[in-house]
Amino acid sequence: MASDKHDNHQRRSHPPLAKVRPGGRRMKRRTFPRVRNEEQLEHHHNVYVVLLDPAVGKVRKVRAANPKRDRKKPCVYVGMTGLTPEERFANHKAGTKAASAVKRFGIRLLPELYAHLNPMPYEAATEMEKDLAEDLRRAGYTVTGGH
Would you list the domain boundaries of the chain? Predict the structure, then answer.
């Protein structure tokens, strides 16, 4: 009789602590809400530039996107974020919503190429990301990102 009680206890299932995705993986919260004033809400997006290892220049897709690259100039990734550039770079390296080029080849941020531009509204940041990538590409940099 005691063994029946023990077996029944093991068969009961407990409610999950977090939602489970198909395939059995649990979902994690990836961002945290922040308290911002109204001006920060409007102008909290940033563009950023990451220095990449020169080995990224061996990737066919990168070479195809930069036919006039100057091999003496660095390889960079251009991106846009609602986080600080430092937080976003840390996320790339950790694999959270990461661009594969930055996760594999990212070395450090290059604030001298973007710090004077930040912060800005979302619409301006999307345009600035494209413009900055194109300007760097025209200057001979090997550029990835900058969609």
Answer: 43-145
